[in-house]
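Protocol step 4 of 6.
Sequence for VWFA domain-containing protein (Allomyces macrogynus) entered exactly as in the expression construct, tag removed. Do not edit the line below.
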Amino acid sequence: MVLEATVLVIDNSEWMRNGDFTPSRAQAQNDAVNLLFNVKTQSNPENTVGLMTMAGKGPEVLVTLTNDMGKILSAMHRVTIAGTPAVSTGIQIAQLVLKHRQNKNQRQRVIVFVGSPVAERTTLPST
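Step 5 output, structure tokens:
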């Protein structure tokens, strides 16, 4: 399979409290993060996954690229729901995380979860 470094950018804005997905958007997002981490690391043992949030005080890298599920689970339990998402800034920081990966042979991938309206109208730099 493909050797890949993936950064999961999760939405921790106030919109994630909504209960339109059972039991909440935040819990559905956590389940998806779990699933993606397992799929990525099981497809190739050298794949790495990072985790970051994009709301609250600002985007924050919770876990740098790793293949340790414990670090990801621990970080997801520390996430607090607050603020509005900074989507473009979050994606740019995710690109920086991928730029500094240890294995330069890994392909880069950013997966963004957005569960709130996006009010930004900025253009992203092309990669």
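Step 6, annotate. Residues 25-43 form the longest helix (19 residues).
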